[in-house]
Amino acid sequence: MKKILFIISLSFALASCKKWVDINDNPNSANSSVPTAEQRLPPLIAQFCDAYESTGTRAAYLSQQLASVYVSGGSNYNLTAWVSNSTNIQWPWQCWYVNTAVNVAPLITAAEKVQAYHYIGAAKIMKAWGFGTLADVYGMLPYDQFDDPTTITPKFDQASYVQEKVLALLDEAIADLQKTQGPTAPPLAKGDILNNGSTDKWIRLAYGLKARWLNHTSALPGFNAQAVLDAASKGAQSKDQSAVMQYVDEGPTVTSSAKEALQYTNTATTARITKLYMDYLTNNYTGAPTGINNMEDPRVDLLIPSMADRNGVLHRTQGVDMTSGITNTGPLSYTYSTTNNTFSNKDSIYVILRKTPYAPTTTDRIQSTGTWYTKRGAKGLLFTNAELRFIEAEILIKQAKNTEALTAYKAGIRAHMELLDIPAGTIDAFLNSSSVVQLPALLTLSNIMIQKYIALSYSPENWADLRRLNYCTDAAGNYNETTGVYKGFKRPAHVNTLYYPAQTDWPRRFAVPSYEINYNSTQVLNADPTASSPTYISQPVWWNKK
């Protein structure tokens, strides 16, 4: 019987070899056609999160939320000196193009086969989100030709063009997410590890991204403030409607970074909190709200690490003063001796961001309490209702609608605290204290943006805001405590003058990654002949040009 079956099978194969090959994709062996839409979406989201949050980590160094221990030539240390070079900013590029973007079209193709329109909508949002984010930090990148298999050296498109494309993609995605799926289409929840299958949350995310990118053009002629407000009104209005990634770490002894929270992985043991970040959290800046009913911000101990002394008493880290000169040779990394219960050097006052030890016993000395964003099993606040409230507050105060702006400003603070799971009573007490602006006439753009700076910790959007509002400078680009928005944000003592020769030079874009420099330099220089200049990274992106 087996021989007969073999002969029949062989004759069939000889008669129709092509058809035989076509129907024998092994469902257990990945290739370009086997995985279904619900199998493709989880890794797409995960890889996007890596590219996005890794962009945010690098932006946090440039934005002076993070400092780094001194390592001559070290990648993160260079970023604190505002030097983004072809190597220290290449991972977001590689993670996006190699691990993420090229998988969008195959997901859409797989979804089209079964009319899984909700997967198509989600995929288009991921594509728009990734390209829109990277366009804003790199200033130019391959878009039209990035996945053309016949093009080895794709041309670079300007970020202004990319924004037009991604805004259109978001509109397409919204339409797809509103469609009724085909009868055999998998439910979105089956593959959605970000929004758990909620088309409403995906649609709100799309509108939120529209509000973000439209707001980037706030300094340009023809800026449409109402369009931003309209989009924001359709975005996330609550904590539960925000796009929050819950990372899943494997436990205290995990050695693989595959599932770790990205800021835990990215900040490692070399990142430190800056004095500026601490000053903003503690209302220690020019024009900060104050009065007889001051209250410490309940987020302080969630966002700033502490260390125990020999008696077990916790002490908050000192913030690295980026203007003091310590950054020319430090702070230095340190080690802890369990035998002597001592640290190797005095720079242990600058506490690491990772909780150490991870699971202390009653006799362990806590070397760091860690922070909310940098713990294992953390959440990634990718796009939240807090951001939209601050966008609204910014627009309203510029329109001299201070009463409405004050409401949005307080709503933004509340939203971020709710995302951090601070008790409602504590939030109410803080919002009613004199540490928060209470009178519309006293509210300033600086108050709003500094609170947004806190709420968007480790987000690439923080750097977009800093650049868009020109740091703490006057119209000429000089530091000005009186007119500047981000009070106290100064050039670091170790700023590299080769890249920033003038006092009016500030970081405006990432350098071109080494992959493009090494293998696609002609297209890079065609797009911008100054891309090989050290001062290229201080050149404004399109929405930042005067």
Structure description:
This protein is mainly alpha-helical. About 40% of the residues lie in helices and about 5% in strands. The protein contains 20 helices and ten strands. It has helices at about 1-15, 15-20, 35-60, 75-80, 90-100, 105-115, 115-140, 160-175, 200-215, 225-235, 260-265, 275-280, 300-305, 385-400, 400-420, 425-430, 445-455, 460-470, 515-520, 520-525; strands at about 65-70, 140, 155-160, 245, 270-275, 305-310, 315, 335, 340-345, 380-385. A two-stranded antiparallel ribbon has the order 1-5. A two-stranded antiparallel ribbon has the order 2-3. It is globular and about 65 Å long. The protein starts with a helix and ends in a 19-residue tail after the last helix. Mean pLDDT is about 90; it is low at about 1-25.
Explain briefly what this protein structure is.
The chain is mainly α and 546 residues long. It has helices at residues 2-15, 17-22, 37-62, 75-80, 90-99, 104-113, 117-138, 159-177, 199-215, 225-233, 262-267, 275-281, 300-303, 385-398, 402-419, 424-431, 445-455, 460-468, 514-519, 521-527, and strands at residues 66-68, 140-141, 157-158, 243-246, 271-273, 306-308, 314-316, 336-337, 342-343, 379-383. The termini are far apart.
